[in-house]
Design brief:
about 375 residues; mainly alpha; Arc Repressor Mutant, subunit A; 15 helices; membrane; homeobox; DNA binding; Ceramide synthase 5
Length: about 375
């Protein structure tokens, strides 16, 4: 039985690490086991150092949120208190827990007769009860401030490192003498730090605020970790650093817009979101797919007779990430009930909903 199971697994493993797919002609994985300058060539065992580093990042995050983010939040007027508690009522609580959190008109009228409450009071109770399950703004602010700080710092480090790298100015250098491209200390630290951060997000997602897009973000982090790990093991690190920096440039802008939203600086939030939207579109739907993916295919296909699939996979993911929100008919409703979701289109919906709410014809719930 074990032997029978090893057959398909061996076949899958051999296909996954096919030298014909990943490496140029007449190059094997054994060739990369030899010595090289600096940190040598990337090895799979280097990935193991990510896990203690991810735990360290998570510990630093806890200290940051407690001693830096929280005082900042309190200083700008975010209160350290939970939402308004709904008045205890066994009948309404049973309906809320067992039947629906959003009762329709018919149910509201029935509850009104049963409790001798007017409909507006019951609607107010359900609204307070829904808000009661939401985490306080202070907690959300601290989480976003941590992500903003890391994204900004890693982006600045990436720009500083890439500025002196030849492949930043000439993308063709990504494949010069590939795969015999030794690691430098700066490149190694950049890659491992990015990978460790996303592993820490994977761990902390189970302890952070539970959002409606939990599964989407879980898959996002999983795919990101897979792409970074594969590109490192296959020594595609030069191209990988460019892609990571290109994606990091919009992340800290999104978190900055969320911070402004939590602090109730609406104009600043709207301005940051417009900037974020422009940067996101230009970098992920402009520069990346049209400059990188096409060039990767034209250069890399000549060396391996296979397209550089991860580049196209990520480009498709960016396109889907941008379009998925507006294609959902209830996106605006989700943004109003949970405006702090992770993916960008939810914030877009919150922005447009804010504009609607400020219009003279808007009638509040």
């Amino acid at each position: 039985m074990a032997t029978a199971a090893q057959g398909p697994l061996s076949l899958l493993w051999g296909w996954l690490w096919s030298e014909r797919f990943w490496l140029p002609q007449n190059v094997s994985w054994a060739d990369l086991e030899g010595p090289a300058d600096g940190y040598g060539y990337p090895r799979g065992r280097h990935i193991l150092s990510v896990f203690p580093l991810a735990a360290g990042i998570f510990f630093v995050r806890l200290l940051f949120e407690r001693f830096i983010a929280k005082p900042c939040a309190l200083h700008i007027g975010i209160e350290d208190s939970g939402p308004y508690q709904a008045q205890p009522n066994a009948i309404l609580e049973k309906v809320f827990v067992s039947i629906t959190k959003y009762p329709d008109k018919k149910r509201l009228e029935g509850l009104s007769k049963q409790l001798d409450w007017n409909v507006q009071k019951i609607q107010c109770w359900f609204r307070h009860r829904r808000n009661q399950d939401k985490p306080p703004t202070l907690t959300k602010f601290c989480e976003s401030m941590w992500r903003f700080t890391f994204y900004l710092c890693i982006f600045c480090y990436g720009i500083r490192f890439l500025w002196s790298s030849p492949w930043f100015w000439d993308i063709r250098q990504c494949w010069h003498n590939y795969p015999f491209q030794p690691l430098s200390s700066g490149l190694y630290y950049y890659y491992i730090m990015e990978l460790a951060f996303y592993w820490s997000l994977m761990f902390s997602q189970f302890t952070d605020i539970k959002r409606k897009d939990f599964l989407i973000m879980f898959v996002h982090h999983l795919v990101t970790i897979g792409l970074i790990s594969f590109s490192y093991i296959n020594n595609m690190v030069r191209a990988g650093t460019l892609i990571m920096c290109l994606h990091d440039v919009s992340d800290f802008l999104l978190e900055a817009a969320k911070l402004a939203n939590y602090a109730k600086y609406q104009r600043l939030c709207d301005t940051l979101f417009v900037i974020f939207s422009a940067v996101f579109m230009v970098t992920r739907l402009g520069i990346y797919p049209f400059c990188f993916s096409v060039l990767f295919y034209s250069i890399f296909a000549n060396r391996t007779q296979e397209p550089y699939c991860p580049a196209f996979t990520l480009a498709c993911a960016d396109l889907l990430w941008t379009l998925i929100g507006p294609l959902l008919p209830h996106t605006v409703f989700l943004a109003r009930s949970d405006p702090d979701s992770e993916y960008p289109t939810r914030l877009a919906s919150g922005f447009f909903d804010s504009s609607l709410r400020n219009s003279p014809n808007f009638m509040p719930k």
